[in-house]
C-alpha cells in the first residue's frame, strides 16, 4: 500500500471513529456541531484536513425499489395481485351483476377485500417442476351481500385474472357465512352513532358530572355476537386523544353499553345492557339516569383538566421532565454496504446467497413466503401468517370479555409505509404491497415491506484452536410491519447462510387497557395497585392481561412432497429401558458404569395430530423424507424449534376454543388439502358458539406417513402489562425456527469465504476485501399510491 493510500485509509477510519464514538474532547455545554466547528478542537482540524485531502470514494448505491413485476401475463404464480388486476376483478364482478357499482352501505353488495388465491399445489408443482400448464392466477374476493333477499357474506374465486374472460366461483354455500358476523362497517357505525347521540343526550347529566368537558368517543369491542343469528356490538367510552387514532385504548372510562343490530332492519335496533362503573345492566338510558339521580349508584368524577395529563401519558413524545441522557444526541452506529447490495429483487421474487423465494401478502391474512429454495432445492412450499388472536381478561364492564381474531379486521387492511431507519435500515429495498379500498372501490400501492441483509455482528460459527477461524453472521431479512387497531405487529422471515430459517412475530403499540377503579368493591381494601386481572399502570388504567397467538401455515417439502413427521423424545431412564426402547437387548452392557442414561426415542406419527410443548417431557419435531438420505444414511429433514412461547390455558368448554382451536396446539400436523387453506375463518370471532372454520376440523385422523403434510405452527405470548407498557409497549417477540436436521452432509456454509489463520502453508483465507468508502445512503423510499 502506498503512503498516500495508507494516509487516506487512516483518515477514513478516523472519520468513522468520530461518527460512531463522538468527539473525544466533547464539551457538554456545546452541541456536537458546534464542537466540530470549534477551531481550537483537534477534531475540527481533522475534519478540515479530511475535507481538503481525503480521497474516500462513495459507496456503490443500489436501487432501493424492487424492480417492477412483469406484466399480467408474465407474472409468477405467487406474485401479489397488483392494483390493475384488482380493478379488473372489480369490473368483472360489476359486469356480472355480483357487486353494486355504487356505495358501501350495509344495505349494498360490495367488495370488502381481495388478494391472490394461492394456486392448487399439484397444478403449481407440475407447472414449476415438469413444464406443465400454467395453473392460472386467481383472486380471493370477500363480498358483503347486503342487498340480497337473505343478506350474507360470500367469498369468491375469480379468474384467471389475465384471461380473456373470468369465471366466478362461490367458495361457500348461500347463507353459510352469516351477515351478522361481518366486521363493523362505516355505514353501520354511522347508524349506531345516531343512536349514541340520543343516548348521550338522555344521560347528559351523568356525562357532565362524571367526565366533564373532556372530548370522548365510543370504542367498539369484540366479539359482536356469539351465534350467527345475533349481532350485539359492545361499546365503551374512551377519552379522545388528539393526534392519535388509537391512543384512546389506554384511556377507557367506566361507561359501556351494547347495540342490538342484527340484519338490515334498523327499526329493531336498540341500545341495551348499559353499565356505569360496573353497575348494571340497565335496559335503557332512562333507567340508568333514574338510578343515578336517586343516589342508588356509586359515582365517578374525572378530575378537571385531566385531558393534558392523559395527553402526556399517551402521545409518544420525548420526556422533557429531565436532562437528555448523555450521548443521546450523537448519531449511533450504522451499517453500510461497501460493495453494494447482494440482493436481487424483482417484483416479489428475492434471491440472495443461495436462497430464492417469493414474498406474498394478503389483505386479510398478512405476509407470507412461497416456493423457498436453497442451493436450488425446494425446502418450503409455504410459510404464511394466517391469524393473530387475543383473549383479554379484566374486571371492567366494557372489557371483561374481549376476544379478537385480527383477520376479521384485516391483518393487511391498515398497512402503512414503513418507518425508515426504524423498521428497516436506510439501505433496504422497498417491497410494494397492495390492498383494496372498499370505500372508493379502488386499489392502492403502499411501500410497507422491505428486504435487507443484516449484519448480526457476531459469528455464525467460530473456533479458537491451534488455528483461528470463523464466519461473520449475515442474515437476509424480509420485514413487513402491520398495524392492527391499537397494536403493531412486525413479521420477519429470516434466512441464514447455513440453511436455517427463522420466523419472528413482534408486538408493539398501545395497550388495549381497561378502566381502573380505586374503589372497586371486588378488590381488596388495602388497594395495592394490582388485582387478579393485572396492575394499575396509569391514573385510571389497568393493563388487562391477555395473550397474542400467531398462527402460521408451514408447508415443508423435504426432498419432494412425500414426507413424514418424527417426534423424537429426549428421555432419561435405566440403561435396560434405553435399549429396549430401540428393540434391542434386555441386559445392560458392562461398559455402562451407571444404571441410568439419557437416550432418544424415535416415533413416526401415523395420523393427524395436535401437539403441545412440555418442558417436563421434551421432544424434537422433525419433518423428514424417509426415501431421501444424506451421505451418512440418515433421512434428510428439517426441525421445528419453537422460541419461548405461551400457552392456551382456557378450559375445554370455553366458548372461544373451537374457533381458536389453533391456539390449543403449538404445532398441528395434517394432510395437505387445497380445501384446507387457512387455520381459521375470520368471521367466526362474531359467532364463536358455532364457527364455520376451525383447525380441529382438519384433524380427522388422516394418515400422514410418507404423504404431503402441512404443519400449523402457533407461537404465542402471554402478556402481563406493567407500567413500562405506557405509553407504548416496547417490542416483545416470539416465533419459531426451521433448522436443517441431517438435511446436508455437513455444515452448509463451508462454501462461503471465511476467516482462517493457520500455521499450515496454503490453508489461510479471508472474507472478501473491500475499500473504505463514504456512505451516502438515503432512507428507503416509502410510497403510497392510489
TrEMBL record:
Signal peptide extent: 1-22
Stretches of the chain forming a coiled coil according to its record: none
Free-text cofactor note: Contains 1 topaquinone per subunit.
Keyword Signal: yes
Segments forming domain Copper amine oxidase catalytic: 334-746
Active site feature: 406, 487
EC number: 1.4.3.-
Keywords per UniProt: Copper, Metal-binding, Oxidoreductase, Signal, TPQ
Entry PTM: Topaquinone (TPQ) is generated by copper-dependent autoxidation of a specific tyrosyl residue.
Location of 2',4',5'-topaquinone modifications: 487
One GO BP: amine metabolic process
Pfam families associated with the record: Cu_amine_oxid, Cu_amine_oxidN2
MF annotations from Gene Ontology: copper ion binding; primary methylamine oxidase activity; quinone binding
InterPro entries linked to this entry: Cu_Am_Ox_Cu-bd, Cu_Am_ox_TPQ-bd, Cu_amine_oxidase, Cu_amine_oxidase_C, Cu_amine_oxidase_C_sf, Cu_amine_oxidase_N-reg, Cu_amine_oxidase_N2
Cofactor(s), by name: Cu cation
GO terms for cellular component: plasma membrane
Entry similarity comment: Belongs to the copper/topaquinone oxidase family.
Name of the protein: Amine oxidase
Amino acid at each position: 500500500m502506498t503512503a498516500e493510500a495508507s494516509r487516506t485509509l487512516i483518515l477514513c477510519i478516523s472519520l468513522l471513529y468520530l461518527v460512531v464514538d463522538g468527539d473525544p474532547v466533547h464539551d457538554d455545554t456545546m452541541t456536537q456541531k458546534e464542537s466540530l466547528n470549534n477551531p481550537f478542537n483537534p477534531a475540527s482540524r481533522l475534519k478540515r484536513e479530511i475535507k481538503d485531502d481525503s480521497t474516500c470514494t462513495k459507496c456503490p448505491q443500489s436501487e432501493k425499489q424492487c424492480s417492477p413485476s412483469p406484466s399480467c401475463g408474465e407474472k409468477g404464480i405467487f406474485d401479489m395481485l397488483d392494483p390493475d388486476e384488482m380493478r379488473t376483478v372489480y369490473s368483472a364482478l360489476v359486469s356480472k351483476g355480483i357487486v353494486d357499482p355504487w356505495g358501501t352501505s350495509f344495505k349494498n353488495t360490495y367488495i370488502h377485500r381481495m388478494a391472490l388465491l394461492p394456486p392448487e399445489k399439484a397444478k403449481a408443482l407440475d407447472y414449476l417442476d415438469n413444464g406443465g400448464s400454467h395453473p392460472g392466477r386467481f383472486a380471493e374476493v370477500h363480498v358483503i351481500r347486503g342487498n340480497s333477499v337473505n343478506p350474507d357474506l360470500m367469498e369468491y374465486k375469480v379468474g384467471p385474472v389475465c384471461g380473456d374472460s373470468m369465471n366466478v366461483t362461490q367458495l361457500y354455500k348461500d347463507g353459510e357465512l352469516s351477515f351478522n358476523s361481518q366486521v363493523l362497517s362505516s355505514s353501520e357505525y354511522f347508524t349506531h352513532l345516531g343512536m349514541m347521540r340520543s343516548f348521550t343526550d338522555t344521560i347528559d347529566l351523568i356525562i357532565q358530572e362524571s367526565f366533564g368537558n373532556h372530548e370522548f368517543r365510543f370504542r367498539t369491542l369484540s366479539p359482536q355476537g356469539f351465534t350467527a343469528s345475533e349481532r350485539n356490538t359492545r361499546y365503551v367510552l374512551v377519552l379522545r386523544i388528539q393526534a392519535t387514532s388509537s391512543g384512546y385504548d389506554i384511556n377507557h372510562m367506566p361507561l359501556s353499553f351494547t347495540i342490538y343490530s342484527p340484519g338490515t332492519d334498523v327499526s329493531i335496533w336498540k341500545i341495551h345492557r348499559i353499565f356505569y362503573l360496573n353497575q348494571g345492566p340497565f335496559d335503557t338510558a332512562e333507567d340508568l339516569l333514574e338510578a343515578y339521580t336517586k343516589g342508588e349508584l356509586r359515582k365517578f368524577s374525572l378530575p378537571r383538566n385531566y385531558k393534558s395529563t392523559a395527553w402526556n401519558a399517551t402521545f409518544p413524545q420525548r420526556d422533557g421532565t429531565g436532562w437528555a441522557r448523555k450521548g443521546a444526541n450523537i448519531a449511533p452506529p450504522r451499517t453500510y454496504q461497501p460493495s453494494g447490495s447482494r440482493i436481487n429483487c424483482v417484483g416479489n421474487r428475492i434471491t440472495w446467497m443461495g436462497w430464492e423465494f417469493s414474498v406474498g401478502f394478503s389483505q386479510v391474512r398478512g405476509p407470507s413466503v412461497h416456493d423457498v429454495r436453497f442451493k436450488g432445492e425446494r425446502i418450503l412450499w409455504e410459510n404464511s401468517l394466517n391469524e393473530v388472536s387475543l383473549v383479554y381478561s379484566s374486571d371492567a364492564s366494557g372489557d371483561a370479555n374481549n376476544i379478537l381474531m385480527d383477520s376479521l379486521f384485516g391483518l393487511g387492511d391498515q398497512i402503512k409505509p414503513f418507518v425508515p431507519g426504524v423498521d428497516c435500515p436506510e439501505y433496504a429495498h422497498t417491497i410494494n404491497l397492495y390492498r383494496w379500498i372498499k370505500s372508493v372501490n379502488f386499489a392502492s400501492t403502499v411501500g410497507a415491506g422491505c428486504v435487507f441483509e443484516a449484519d448480526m455482528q457476531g459469528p455464525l460459527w467460530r473456533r479458537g484452536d491451534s488455528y483461528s477461524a470463523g464466519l461473520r453472521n449475515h442474515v437476509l431479512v424480509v420485514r413487513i410491519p402491520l398495524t392492527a387497531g391499537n397494536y403493531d405487529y412486525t413479521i420477519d422471515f429470516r434466512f441464514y447462510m447455513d440453511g436455517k430459517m427463522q420466523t419472528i412475530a413482534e408486538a408493539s403499540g398501545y395497550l388495549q387497557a381497561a378502566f381502573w377503579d380505586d374503589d372497586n368493591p371486588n378488590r381488596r381494601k388495602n388497594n395495592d395497585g394490582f388485582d387478579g386481572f393485572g396492575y394499575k399502570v396509569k391514573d385510571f388504567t389497568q393493563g388487562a392481561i391477555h395473550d397474542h397467538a400467531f398462527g402460521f401455515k408451514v408447508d415443508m417439502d423435504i426432498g419432494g412432497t412425500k414426507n413424514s413427521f418424527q417426534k423424537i423424545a429426549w428421555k432419561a431412564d435405566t440403561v435396560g429401558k434405553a435399549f429396549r426402547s430401540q428393540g434391542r437387548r434386555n441386559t445392560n452392557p458392562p461398559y455402562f458404569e451407571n444404571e441410568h442414561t439419557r437416550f432418544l426415542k424415535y416415533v413416526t406419527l401415523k395420523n393427524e395430530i395436535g401437539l403441545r410443548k412440555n418442558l417436563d417431557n421434551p421432544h424434537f419435531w422433525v419433518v423428514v423424507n424417509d426415501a431421501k438420505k444424506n451421505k451418512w444414511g440418515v433421512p434428510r429433514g428439517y426441525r421445528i424449534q419453537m422460541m419461548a412461547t405461551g400457552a392456551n390455558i382456557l378450559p375445554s368448554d370455553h366458548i372461544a376454543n373451537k374457533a381458536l382451536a389453533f391456539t390449543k396446539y403449538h404445532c398441528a400436523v395434517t394432510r395437505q388439502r387445497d380445501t384446507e387453506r387457512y387455520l381459521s375463518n375470520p368471521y367466526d370471532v362474531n359467532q364463536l358458539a358455532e364457527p364455520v372454520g376451525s383447525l380441529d376440523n382438519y384433524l380427522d385422523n388422516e394418515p400422514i406417513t410418507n404423504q404431503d403434510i402441512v404443519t400449523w405452527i402457533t407461537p404465542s405470548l402471554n402478556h402481563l402489562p406493567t407500567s413500562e407498557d405506557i405509553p407504548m409497549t416496547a417490542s416483545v417477540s416470539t416465533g419459531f425456527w426451521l433448522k436443517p436436521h441431517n438435511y446436508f452432509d455437513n455444515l452448509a456454509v463451508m462454501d462461503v469465504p471465511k476467516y482462517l489463520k493457520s500455521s499450515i502453508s496454503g490453508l489461510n483465507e479471508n472474507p472478501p476485501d473491500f475499500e473504505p468508502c463514504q456512505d451516502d445512503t438515503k432512507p428507503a423510499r416509502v410510497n403510497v399510491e392510489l
